[in-house]
């Protein structure tokens, strides 16, 4: 049965994507991630124990009460796939007036972000250690977001794996529906074919308008991470895209 937060368009788009007739739930979704093995360090494990109860929200297929989850009312930004949380912690620090709801499935990454929160004392982040697509489908109501960050999503280089990429029409339509008018969707990638796919898919979404003509200048809140600096030193490009939800 579709969840209350899912729209009829979501259901039809997802069914069509998976070849099921409209209105029929498809049996298995293609995931945008694989659960990587990775060691959680002692420091990260301690951060889970000490800070997990404060910063990790349980996944529950119920619309999220963001004001209750953050203990205040503030603009809500969703981040999908924060990795080790370097950019996430920086952005939350330079934008203290926003609330950041951050999804990541990789446990050591969650531990690493918790550790940073402990060290830096930020309180405007909540973490969902869960598939962001399910969070969007089941926990986020239409018009509930002021922004979305998707930085360096897995590029799934091989053609046969391209279907796992996050930035595809059905997910973009769901994100656009959950943004408030004037809200933004900010993506960044260092893989040119994916940048081109992003530009094509985002430009084709009727609810979104490009804030730039083509790729956007890097917004000043997004830091250059260690990973990105290494790429830039090797001569790799980086492409930012910022699209706005139409009224
Ligand atoms: C290539 S990493 C980039 C991490 C980070 N944004 C950065 O810039 O360094 C992509 C991350 O997205 C996460 N991810 C992919 N699909 C996801 C999903 N559906 N829900 C939550 N996390 C996801 C992966 O676990 C991975 O850590």
UniProtKB/TrEMBL annotation:
Residue ranges, annotated region (Interaction with RNA): 160-165
Keywords: Methyltransferase, S-adenosyl-L-methionine, Transferase, tRNA processing
Catalyzed reactions per annotation: guanosine(46) in tRNA + S-adenosyl-L-methionine = N(7)-methylguanosine(46) in tRNA + S-adenosyl-L-homocysteine
Tree of life domain: Bacteria
PROSITE patterns given in the database record: SAM_MT_TRMB
MF-aspect GO terms: tRNA (guanine(46)-N7)-methyltransferase activity
Pathway: tRNA modification; N(7)-methylguanine-tRNA biosynthesis
Amino acids binding S-adenosyl-L-methionine: 79, 104, 131, 154
Chain residues that bind substrate: 158, 190, 225-228
Matches recorded under CDD domains: AdoMet_MTases
Entries under Pfam families matching the protein: Methyltransf_4
Cellular component per GO, a single term: tRNA methyltransferase complex
EC number annotated for this UniProt entry: 2.1.1.33
InterPro entries with a match to the protein in the record: SAM-dependent_MTases_sf, tRNA_(Gua-N-7)_MeTrfase_Trmb, tRNA_methyltr_TrmB_bact
Family from the record: Belongs to the class I-like SAM-binding methyltransferase superfamily. TrmB family.
NCBIfam families recorded: tRNA (guanosine(46)-N7)-methyltransferase TrmB
Biological function: Catalyzes the formation of N(7)-methylguanine at position 46 (m7G46) in tRNA.
Entry protein name: tRNA (guanine-N(7)-)-methyltransferase
Biological source species: Simplicispira metamorpha
